[in-house]
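Re-running Aminotransferase class III-fold pyridoxal phosphate-dependent enzyme to confirm reproducibility after the cluster update. Everything else is unchanged from the original entry.
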Amino acid sequence: MRETNFLVENNARHLWHPMAHPAEMRANPPKIVNAAAGVEITDLQGKTVLDAVGGLWNVNLGYSCEPVKAAIRDQLDQLPYYSTFRGTTNSPLIELSYELAEWFREDGLTRAFFTSGGSDSVETCLRLARQYHKINGQPERTKFIALKKGYHGTHFGGASVNGNANFRRNYEPLLPGVTHLASPYLYRNPFGTEDPAVLASLIARQFEDEIAFQGADTIAALIMEPVLGAGGVIVPHETFMPLMRDICDRHGILLIADEVITAFGRTGAWTGSRLWGVKPDFMSTAKAITNGYFPFGAVMIADRIAEAFEANKNSYGAIGHGYTYSGHPVGAAAALATLKETRRADVATNAAARGAELMAGLEGLKAKHEIIGDVRGKGLMCALELVADRKTKASAAKDVVATIYEGTYEAGVMVRTSGANIILSPPLVITTKDVERIVAALDAGLAKVAR
Ligand code: PMP
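Result of re-run:
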C-alpha cells in the first residue's frame, strides 16, 4: 500500500465523497479505514474501534462472516457474472428467490425483483407502482405521497419523494406530483402535540385531506419507512403505519414500505412492516441482504400485485425496467449465505435485547448530559439529538457535534453524525459488553463538551 501522505493528498485531489462538501473533505480529511474484524474497524494509524455504525446500517453480521466471504469467492470461480435480462438466469438467484419468498411469505410478498442497492430498489418500487395502475385500468394514478424527514435514496424518483431539503434543493426540478405529509417526529412536530398517538392520527387526517384535495384517482402510492432512518431515527407510534395502510386500502393507493434499513432484523422484528403488523404492496430492501459485502438489493412484491402483472394481457405488462446488475450471481450467492447466517444467529432477537440495553444506556446519558435533547430508537437503530438548549430545542452547533464525534472515536467507538443527531446502527450481533462500550465511549465524547 502507498504511504499515508500519498493517500491523504490524493483523496483530497481526486475523490469526491457522497454527502460531503469537497472542500470540507480537504480541510478535514476522512479517516482511512484499513481493516475490519468482528464488530471492529481499524484505521490506517492502527487504531481499532467498535463500529457502532455497522458500515452504513448494513453490516448486520459483522466483518468476519466467513460463510458470506466463502460464498462470494466460490461464486466468483463458478460464474462471476451473467445478465438476467430476458433469456438468461442463474442458479444462485433462483435459489435466492425461493428463500426470499419463504422469508417474506408472512408479509404476503413472494415475488422478487433484483437491484444493485437501495436507491435502485426505491426506483423500482415507484416505477412498478405506476405500471400496476396502468395494468389495472387506472393510468391516471401517477402521483406519490411521502413523509417529511423520509429518506429514499438519491435517484431522481427517490430524491423526489425524499423528505429532506438537503437532498432535494440542488437537484430540482424533481418529479412532479409528489406531496409530503408531516413527519411522525414527535420531538419537533408542527402540531405542538406531545402525544405520539395523537400525532399519528393528525398525520393520518392530513393524508385523508390530501387525498380528498388531489383526488384518490390521481395517486399511485404512499412511500414510507416503517422507522425513519437517515432522517434521524424517527420511531412512529405503533398505530401510525396501520392507520396509513388502512387509508391506502380505502382509496386504492399502494403502500411502498422502504425497508432498505429495516428489513432483516434491525428493529428487533424481521421487517419493519411486521413490527407494526402491516402488509405492504411493495417492499424495498438492500443493505443487510448481503451483509454489506456486495452491492445488491431486492424489491419484494405483494402476491395480489404480482398476479395482476402475471395475468395481464394488455400492452402494459412487460417490465421495461432493470439493471445490468439485476440478479448478479455473486450478489445472489452473498445474499443466500447472509440470509442463512442471519436466521441461524437469530439477529432480530439479539437486536431487540441489545437495543433495549442500548436505549437504557442512552437514557442514562441523557440524565447526565444537558446537551442531549432527545433519545430515540427501536431495536439497534438509535439516535441522540443534541441541543444547545433543552427549553428552546435549538440545535447544537456543528463544531460541538464534531467534538463529540471525535471524542467518542478517541474513546474507541465509531458513531455517525447527521446534522445534530448522533446515529447508532451497530452490527446486530453485538454483545452486552459491546453495548456498554458504546455507552461509555459516548459518555467520554459528551464529556468533552460538558460545561
Ligand atoms: N432507502 C432508505 C430507507 C435508505 O436508508 C437508503 C440508504 N441509506 C436508501 C433508500 C438508498 O440506498 P442506497 O444508498 O443503497 O442507494
